Amino acid sequence: MSESTTTDPVLTVRDLRKSFTLHTIDGRTVVSLHGVDLEVGRGEHVALAGPSGAGKSSFLRCVHRSYLPDAGSVVLHTDDGPVELTGLSDREMARLRGRELGYVSQFLSAPPRTAPLEVVAASARRRGMNRADARDAAAEALQRLSLDEALWDVDCSVLSGGERQRVNIAAGTVHPPRLLLLDEPVSALDPVNRERALELIASLSASGVAVLAVFHDLDAMHRLATRVVRFADGHIDRIGSATDVLGKAA
Fold it and tell me: Which residues form the ABC transporter domain (predicted)?
């Protein structure tokens, strides 16, 4: 299933295919994506829905280039023109991720003995901010997500799961990138902090940030998504509003 072209695309994916070989079992090949087409436009929030194993996370990781697809095209539209991500070297891809492409997973990956303020400030610097402005922006992001200031200078390894997830969200959204990928970003948060995080994510559309997200949280998809893309068996099964695809909100 394909879709119509958006007027101001940030991401264009065509005929994306990905399979995995199960070496630990019997060497069989499992196909995760069967020729998926998708576009995400400026200021759009596109949520990926579907059961576990449907291909949502594989699709997200192929866009991020955590997975290298078997075939197909993944194009990020930048100010300098379209960039085909599948053909970039690892070094070029790392540089592009720093400037143009953010990724927030369920788990924070921080260098050893690194504090939350430095993790978030480093993300802002990679996106073009100078050191002083990056530190100010990092403080603002952590404040917005209500991370206790007493924790800003401690090693991230001592933080709770919910605190780490807030640092991850702050790093992904500070001085927002052109395209933000979210993989269950609020799964470890209590109701109050979940609300703060969802409000922050919702505000990105006004800045023109394109968001591509995996949520199992139906309420979050109803609140945030301009479109929902439902995956089934490695294909796009349906595209539409949250109500059309998921039914009415509870």
Answer: 11-250
**Amino acid (one-letter) located at 189:** L
Taking alpha carbons only, the member of 61, 62, 58, 57 closest to residue 73 is 62
pLDDT in tens, 152-192: 999 999 999 999 999 999 999 999 999 999 999 998 899 99
**Full-model pTM:** 0.92
All domains of the chain in start order, with CATH = 9-112+178-244 (3.40.50.300)
Sorted by sequence, the CB contacts under 8 Å of residue 209 that are 6+ apart come out as 43, 176, 177, 178, 179, 180
Q: What strands lie across the sheet with 45-49, from one edge to the other? A: 101-104, 179-183, 210-214, 45-49, 227-232, 235-240
Is-contact 74 13, C-beta < 8 A? Answer: yes
